[in-house]
Amino acid sequence: IDFNGNNKVCLAEIDKWVVENYPLLNHKPALIRAMQATLDSFHDMGGLIEKKEFKALLLNLFYYNKLFWLFDQADADNDRRMDVKEFSFCCTMCGLKMSPRKVKAEFAKVDRNGGGIILFDEFCKYFVEKQCPKEMTAFLADA
């Protein structure tokens, strides 16, 4: 994976490795979030994954790909954004039974910038910060 031999891997090297060896995990938004989460957890501002961080990167790669799968399944129009109707479907997929009012309130928690859509980044933060209902994290753990 370390193609240039500097004992660190950049996003491009990780991307190439994933594409060639694990195409099932080849979702760029998930890869970017996994790398950023790994760097953040190690307070690494260098932008490169070191050997000691690699195990965490692998765990994050699986976790964010699960989140991407869930997001992608709910994204009916494939625009990489989730509206309130798609979010409602996502909640239903996870086994949540919520009134339309509760769905809208939950949607507002995720839609941090109030733009009326949820981007994958906002969706990830919703899960990572454990703001989502426990049924959603349970669904993700079972997936």
What does this structure look like?
- This protein is mainly α and 143 residues long.
- 59% of the residues lie in helices and 6% in strands.
- It has helices at 11-21, 28-41, 54-74, 84-93, 100-110, 120-128, 134-142; strands at residues 8-9, 49-50, 81-82, 118-119.
- The strands form 2 sheets. Strands 1-2 form a two-stranded antiparallel sheet.
- Helix 3 packs across helix 6.
- The radius of gyration is 16 Å and the shape is elongated.
- The mean pLDDT is 88.
Nutshell version of this structure?
This protein has 143 residues and is mainly α. It has helices spanning 11-21, 28-41, 54-74, 84-93, 100-110, 120-128, 134-142, and strands at 8-9, 49-50, 81-82, 118-119.
Comma- or semicolon-separated keywords:
6% strand; 143 residues; two-stranded antiparallel ribbon; elongated; single chain
Task: Describe the secondary structure blueprint for this structure.
Layout: E1 8-9, H1 11-21, H2 28-41, E2 49-50, H3 54-74, E3 81-82, H4 84-93, H5 100-110, E4 118-119, H6 120-128, H7 134-142
Antiparallel strand pairs: 1-2, 3-4
